[in-house]
Amino acid sequence: MPLIDTGKKAPLFTLKDQAGAKHALKDYLGQWVVLFFYPKDDTSGCTKEACGFRDALPDFQGLDAVVLGCSPQEVRSKEKFAAKYDLNFPILADDDAKICDKYGVWQEKSMYGRKYMGVVRTTYLIDPGGKVAERWDKVKVPGHVEAVRDRISTEQG
């Protein structure tokens, strides 16, 4: 599936977090949603990104924004990842990669000449009406959390 363009409706989903609680996008209507897709729990870049959102969570909450992380590992992996790094926001388990695919982040990748399917690090900012307000492709972790926070601040003027 292609990436979702800005201005388009964000695909609905319901996924379990690290505690097994269900989160549905429709439950967050009326709030900004930062939905960041990352390749794998407890890997270097993914950990830095998740910890960056963890550390900035009070800023996002002050902007009436919810932060959701998502990758294609199971709930147990999310539970370990969240506990190890004190992640204090929902880390969603898309163990069959269906939501990753719906959002266009499940793509063919290549490492050392080997091709495989995986998540391309992407963040969506979903507005209170459920539309994509911004999308960051092939995210570089340094400075990313600040860029997302600043984008919401700009919208709220």
CATH class assignment? Alpha Beta
**CATH architecture annotation name:** 3-Layer(aba) Sandwich
Taking all residues together, what is the mean pLDDT?
96
Count of the domains: 1
Q: Which overall shape is indicated by the principal axes computed on the Cα atoms?
A: globular
> End-to-end distance, in Å?
34 Å
Structural class: alpha/beta
Number of strand segments? 9
CATH superfamily grouping: Glutaredoxin
How much helicity do the residues have?
25-40%
CATH topology: Glutaredoxin
- Pattern of helices and strands: EEEHEHEHEEEEH
Q: Biggest sheet, strands in spatial order? A: 5-4-3-8-9
What proportion of the residues form beta strands (DSSP E)? 25-35%
Integer-rounded radius of gyration:
14 Å
Outline the structure in words:
The protein has one domain: Glutaredoxin, CATH 3.40.30.10. Helix content is 31%, strand content 28%. The chain has a five-stranded mixed β-sheet. A two-stranded antiparallel sheet has the order 1-2. A two-stranded antiparallel sheet has the order 6-7. The longest helix has 19 residues. The N and C termini lie far apart (34 Å).
